[in-house]
From TrEMBL, chains A, B:
Catalyzed reaction equations: (R)-malate + A = oxaloacetate + AH2
Ranges in coiled-coil conformation: none
Cell compartments where the protein resides: Mitochondrion
Cellular compartments per GO CC: mitochondrion
Co-factor requirement: FAD
Gene Ontology BP, a term: malate metabolic process
Superkingdom per UniProt: Eukaryota
Entry keyword annotation includes Manganese: no
Name of the featured protein: D-2-hydroxyglutarate dehydrogenase, mitochondrial
């Protein structure tokens, strides 16, 4: 671990002040005054490349044990859908020639989820290129009563993206074209299968950014992001997809193409139908195209990575940030010491700051370098001076910013390497956010390898994860319904951003009243009367 | 009119630069260097007080001619709802004692819309205080097949807020309590009948602002704002209500209370049901309470009011603004010379800058006075220096800011004083925004008193208004479907923010495909099978 360097105020404060001119501000510095290149060196090998794009070749997948079939692990019964026949395959082949995949090895990757906790046994994967093809496929499936599982990047964390039984997998992988981009307004129209990271690159070349960003960006599709109403790392600044998405094209269960693909910031011509599909996890329709508003690319981005002595200080640092950084604050993420241990151990990433009980990552994005530097400088001076923060490091160039972000973004990956992961993604009042972690550590004792807390603190969103050597019903019994009851007791949400999928259906009632669950079911019946779209998912299980 | 003063650069530039320290920056200045107090004096009498709260006593209402009954002016047939009986009144009286209004004079104000173009003949106005009372009322109306028109502040501009025939008026006027406010997160929970301006005051005292603002703020209710998905003056910065509203409580047609009133920034537990009701104009349920995220109150607010020589310059000034003001830009509004003539003539407001073909109002909101001043100063210097702007004035103190805003906010009011108003509220690609106005002026010639264009340029939202001495079918024939076809030709929206109400039902097809209209109808049938909520409104008319 990094040796503790007592903060040497004068040394730190002086160059900081001087750094308020653009030229002097591009150097990444630690606050004790020394640039810790060896640490950056260690980080460097992985930064800037999303771990997920390379996942196929990672050691995890090849060495990992076979994943148990979902229908064997969970008490779930197949619904009376038809089974895919040779004739069906021939029909699909006519609709999308050479894009009907039945090779078992190719199917394997699409039958198992990212967390490797679910496995379906689908016999066919379809890869349409256009919404007309999707429409044609769904019309046929609807007539034939064939169940369909839409799949984007397959990075979902609640088992929504893979079949439970033999549902047809409808992949958006080849629907990856940008349709248009308006340079003045920043409105992007693209197909649903575009990979988030590629869209980011595309719009950044045009001086804009995507309004969302997440650790899975190298694999996840924009359609999957919308289907899950993904939150992610820019939520604090740019808000929910319900606000930034301007239009959608959706193919309904019976093949009807619903074109709500407007590129207007305002359109109050009747009900805002697109909203229904944002967050509906593929159960109400297949999103085929998206129109989304991209914010201008900030001229100056700074990331500070800070060590905090306690959770109270994490909260106070957040309030201070909001007050002193105002409109340029673009992210406020936290992680605990155990998270840092995990990324160090499994991914060989090292902490750029001294060991601390908590770490926070503060990002600013603004339009004027020297103004942002001044704001950040005042904030950091205050935070360090008042003891809210004990150590920290600042990055202003892209490479180093990516390295700092990797520490936070790759926690999910480090966790999967630690063993079986029990994942909870909850919203809580911010001042109670960490209590549940402390509480669970005491409750679980040595049953768990690790109990960690991290997440989007600025949004009141805790990622609570428990790892163990293997899946254990008794550990699960100690976790659930305890975690959900605790959350409901705080009027929190039992799924802040990851959605419901297959895994959280039974717990919806902790966050939604019966009237809401009934209305969800009614909407499902209205839009997908035969229930062929992503069955066994998202809708509440019958009590 | 103000005498044209040639810009005296050195005089202007010098104090401007000097003004970049906080102390020096609080003075409102015109760019020719002189403070034009006489103009402010003239404005002063009206600024800061919303025109709408005083409307009851305004000369318009008392002198205005009787408004023609809607069912006489328009070819609309009463649907077979029951008629309110004495027994019904007695039941209502039991549910909400002393809050069942049948006095014709009191009813008058609720039967006629703000524009005075629609009149219903409802015989009863109900004023519940709680959602339980609303639930009780709707359950009864549902059983009895009585039609209900929910009414907020009755400022809607599309005839949605008043009955068409004898629908019961359900007013939210007494549902005006704040339920809670979280000081750290800025989350406000309140009843639907709270007046926007009062909420603004409430949260501003706590160092936050409402994420929306509109000219009707003195009268409109937050429930009405949500029901119409109001856009308004802060949309550019804080985005749509679909993003800022966190939760809703809604009473459905049959009296079911749907409680989605969470106060969490993130909640992906199933479909986001609240979204259905935002913008549904009272046709799917009655919104009874709201949870909404308020942004922190900016430390520094500046408003510049500028004269532009042409529409091309209005657009270029906007691009320059976005680039140079970045994250602190909070509004960009424009109005044409005829708008200025109307506010001068009817409301005795005078232009604070020299006569120009176009005016723009630029607002910045930021967290650090001197940084904002510097950004604004660079921008204005550039805009004036490059001829984008020919004259301008800047306000930094609240009183003067309100006066400048009044020029823009009170255009709607000035128009109603000018005669019969044909109103169009459309979204268009920003570079074609004003072409329609020019085009119509030529097309209508002397038939129209005024053809004016103004609006939220930053959102691509044009308010196009035509005034005439009185309603004329032949003028209407020249306007419609021409305006809608023109808009559809640009793939615009025929109702950007005002909604559909009674007046725009027949034109929905210009902006929405048949599949979308069908789904709207299906949702209506699902949620309000007897169609008792706001009948004759919002849903597409049968082709
Ligand atoms: C390392 C890592 C970090 C993550 N970080 C975040 C985070 O910060 N915030 C967050 O919210 N999530 C996060 N996630 C979860 C996940 O990445 C998101 O849910 C993502 O939006 C899923 O996109 P996808 O394309 O991979 O969808 P998939 O996983 O393929 O599918 C997810 C669900 O959406 C449906 N779906 C996919 N595409 C469509 C479509 N076109 N039409 C209809 N339905 C569709 C699927 O049926 C399924 O139910 C993370 C995941 C990982 C592995
Ligand atoms: C001077 C002026 C300026 C304006 N500026 C703007 C602007 O900038 N942007 C903009 O978008 N609009 C603007 N408007 C239009 C209008 O103010 C908005 O539509 C406003 O949101 C309506 O609120 P209200 O409370 O007056 O609703 P009302 O007019 O009473 O009702 C409007 C519709 O909503 C329904 N409704 C009302 N309350 C509820 C409820 N609690 N539950 C369910 N349904 C309900 C009604 O049935 C009706 O269909 C302006 C109007 C005026 C007069």
């Amino acid at each position: 671990m990094v040796r503790r360097l007592a903060p040497r105020w004068p040394v730190w404060l002086f160059p900081w002040r001087a750094a308020c001119t653009p030229g002097a501000f591009v150097q990444q510095r630690t606050w004790a005054g020394a640039t810790r290149t060896p640490l950056w060196g260690r980080l460097h090998g992985v930064a800037g490349v999303s771990p997920l794009v390379r996942r196929g070749s990672s050691s995890t997948s090849s060495q990992a044990p076979e994943v148990v079939l979902t229908c064997e692990r969970y008490p779930v019964r197949r619904l009376p859908f038809s089974t895919v026949s040779e004739e069906d395959l021939a029909t699909f082949e006519r609709i999308i020639p050479s894009r009907v995949i039945t090779d078992p090895e190719e199917l394997e990757a699409s039958n198992v989820d990212w967390l490797r906790t679910m496995r379906g046994c689908s016999k066919v994967l379809l890869k349409p290129r256009t919404s007309e093809e999707v429409s044609h496929i769904l019309r046929y499936c609807h007539e034939r009563n064939l169940a369909v599982n839409t799949q984007g990047g397959n990075t979902g964390l609640v088992g929504g993206s893979v079949p439970v039984f033999d549902e047809i997998i409808l992949s958006t992988a080849l629907m990856n074209q940008v349709v248009s981009f308006q340079d003045i307004s920043g409105i992007l129209v693209c197909q649903a299968g575009c990979i988030l990271e590629e869209l980011s690159r595309y719009v950044e070349e045009r001086d804009f950014i995507m309004p969302l960003d997440l650790g899975a960006k190298g694999s996840c599709h924009i359609g999957g992001n919308l289907a899950t109403n993904a939150g992610g790392l820019r939520f604090l600044r740019y808000g929910s997809l319900h606000g930034t998405v301007l239009g959608l094209e959706v193919v309904l269960a019976d093949g009807t193409v619903l074109n709500c693909l407007t590129s207007l910031r305002k359109d109050n011509t009747g009900y805002d139908l697109k909203q229904l599909f944002i967050g509906s996890e593929g159960t109400l329709g297949v999103i085929t195209a998206v129109s989304i508003l991209c914010p201008p690319k900030p001229r100056a981005v700074n990331v500070a990575f800070l060590g905090c002595p306690g959770f109270a200080e994490v909260l106070q640092t957040f309030s201070t940030c909001k007050r002193m950084l105002g409109e340029i604050l673009s992210a406020y993420e936290f992680m605990d010491a155990e998270c840092m241990q995990l990324v160090r151990h499994h991914l060989h990433l090292a902490s750029p700051v001294q060991e601390s009980p908590f770490y926070v990552l503060v990002e600013t994005s603004g339009s004027r370098v020297e103004h942002d530097a001044e704001k950040l400088s005042s904030f950091l001076e205050h935070a360090l001076g008042s003891g809210l923060v004990t150590d920290g490091t600042l990055a202003t160039d892209q490479g180093k910013i990516k390295m700092l972000w990797a520490l936070r973004e790759r926690i999910t990956e480090a966790l999967t390497r630690d063993g079986y992961v029990y994942k909870y993604d909850i919203s809580l009042p911010v001042d109670r956010l960490y209590d549940l972690v402390t509480d669970l550590r005491a409750r679980l004792g040595s049953q768990a390898k690790h109990v960690v807390g991290y997440g989007h603190l600025g949004d009141g969103n805790l990622h609570l994860n428990v790892t163990a050597e293997a899946f254990s019903p008794s550990l699960l019994g100690d976790l659930e319904p305890y975690v959900y009851e605790w959350t409901a007791g705080q009027r929190g949400s039992v799924s802040a951003e990851h959605g419901v999928g297959f895994k959280k259906q039974s717990v919806l009632g902790y966050s939604k009243p019966p009237e809401a669950l009934r209305l969800m079911q009614q909407l499902k019946t209205l839009l997908d009367p035969k229930g062929i779209l992503n069955p066994y998912k998202t809708l509440p299980t019958q009590a």
